[in-house]
Design goal:
The structure is a homodimer of 299-residue chains. With 299 residues, chain A is α/β, with parallel strands linked by helices. Chain A has one domain: TIM Barrel. Helices cover 41% and strands 16% of the residues of chain A. The first copy, chain A, is globular. The two termini of chain A are 32 Å apart. The interface between A and B is medium-sized, with 34 and 34 residues.
Chain lengths: 299, 299
């Protein structure tokens, strides 16, 4: 007899992970409305920005402006990705309470994604995380390509366990392990998660699945069955890029929510609220979002 | 340690279940090309037509013409849905080797779908199946709304077990249990399948999932883990109706195939071939199909 957790936590990453690859740059005011709608749906955690170099990711160049527009008046805890010490200084200036730092389980992917090897990225993260903690911020870590790398193929679970361990040692309170290209099967998810459970309690690990090949809900359900309780997702399944090859969107918040709701698991999030947020951003982007649930009629 | 089956069987239902709700009626020649492309991909079983009253389902009014166009020269085993004795006479006339008969686990759904109660539909099926078997045909049974009914809600697993049992007693060699509205979770799937396994061997049961709420791959994986080896699907995830509320498509053949391929399970089906069939029918219908895998670049 399976006992599902009574409550799970959804970490909405649409405003950051979802918007960063969109061909259309969303105006700050429209982004702020998106984030307000997300917070109004009951989401407790929203990743709203990235303090990357504005010329590298123009879609996310307005991190300070967004946080100023939101003015700290939301019920949700906001967080932002911080790639380096310069980004951290910017983040501190905005008063954001939580940051996220990023590395990968694949050496090749990490070099292509953030111009650093895995070792180097972990080394430069040490002082960064320490400084953020001294400033009273909390810190989340990301491990990209936790299962499959587009360049190296299948990832050794040992590499994931080792990097997750290093992130916890730096002082992050949560590590989100990502199937960045959405290529993992639930079986591969199970194998790596079993290894992680030997070392870490599930409450400190978040599951970050993309739905490129339609596996994301199955992967999330696999993790749920194994006791994991934190799931990253994007409203509408945002993240697919209509002009780039492949639709590499995050798993849709609506689709995860459907699963949790039907299983009687508390999330604190209202589907109708997420729909409103997704409909808003879909209209701003001028495209249909891939969430299955969003395509069904609302009641 | 999970042992996956070495081989699974995919039953392609796109030409029938997929096309029956499309607003655009596909010409016989284009349908025949679709079926030829499907067969060329390695699929062993394809449901190609329905001998319903042409005025009731105009999309499928050309059952005889399709079978004549295909002329029995395909490597796949073709089958067609047969609702009544009149339909069976038509099917016999075409020489098709396999038919399918349909009932539901929900009384209300069955009445709305085929104008008969469940008992009545099973009763009229008896002579129909017997006649088909005497003609040397093989017969598949369908149980719609095996988990959730849009009118009655959650379906009692006992009802499913009872109806599946009655279908086997009539002489069908396989029963396909359907999540007709795509509303079941993998947990609900597990509960009903456990009950079915107490009575029937998994090799005689097919899993028929729709992807309305994004649960279909997770449901298929759940069934796979429990030993089921036959899965119905539609190329491209065909079946969603762009004008009707909700996208009630079958699970996409491509998405299932991705899962099976990555797990190292044999299907005999080539993804590139399914893509070609999906691209053909998508272009005929003038719409994008919902399969996730189809949206990714082919290699």
């Amino acid at each position: 007899m399976t006992v599902f957790p009574k409550k799970v936590r959804i970490v909405e990453v649409g405003p950051r992970d979802g918007l960063q690859n969109q061909p259309r740059i969303v105006r700050t005011a429209a982004k702020a409305d998106f984030i307000r709608l997300l917070a109004a749906s009951g989401l407790e955690d929203i990743e709203v920005a990235s303090f990357v170099r504005p010329d590298r990711v123009p879609q996310l160049a307005d991190a300070e402006e967004i946080l100023a527009a939101l003015d700290g008046d939301l019920p949700a805890r906001l967080s932002a990705l911080v790639p380096n010490m310069k980004g951290l200084e910017r983040a501190i200036g905005t008063g954001i309470p939580r940051i996220a730092v990023l590395t990968a389980a694949s050496e090749t992917f990490n070099r292509k994604n953030i111009d650093m090897g895995v070792r180097e990225s972990l080394d430069q993260m040490g002082p960064l995380v320490a400084r953020a903690l001294r400033e009273g911020m909390s810190v989340r870590g990301y491990v990209s390509t936790g299962w499959v790398c587009p360049f190296e193929g299948t990832i050794d679970p040992d590499a994931v366990v080792r990097i997750v361990g290093e992130l916890f040692e730096l002082g992050v309170d949560e590590v989100s392990v990502g199937d960045t290209i959405g290529a993992a099967t639930p079986w591969q998810v199970e194998v790596t998660l079993e290894r992680l459970l030997e070392r870490f309690p599930p409450e400190n690990l978040a599951m970050h699945f993309h739905d490129t090949y339609g596996m994301a809900v199955a992967n999330a359900y696999q993790a749920l069955r194994m006791g994991f309780r934190t799931f990253d997702s994007s409203a509408g399944g945002l993240g697919g890029c209509p002009y780039a090859p492949g639709a590499m969107g995050n798993v849709a918040t609506e689709d995860l929510l459907y699963l949790f709701d039907r299983l009687g698991i508390e999330t604190g999030v209202r589907l109708a609220g997420i729909r409103r947020a997704s409909e808003h951003i879909a209209s701003v982007l001028g495209r249909k979002l891939p969430s299955r649930v969003l395509a069904t009629p609302s009641n």
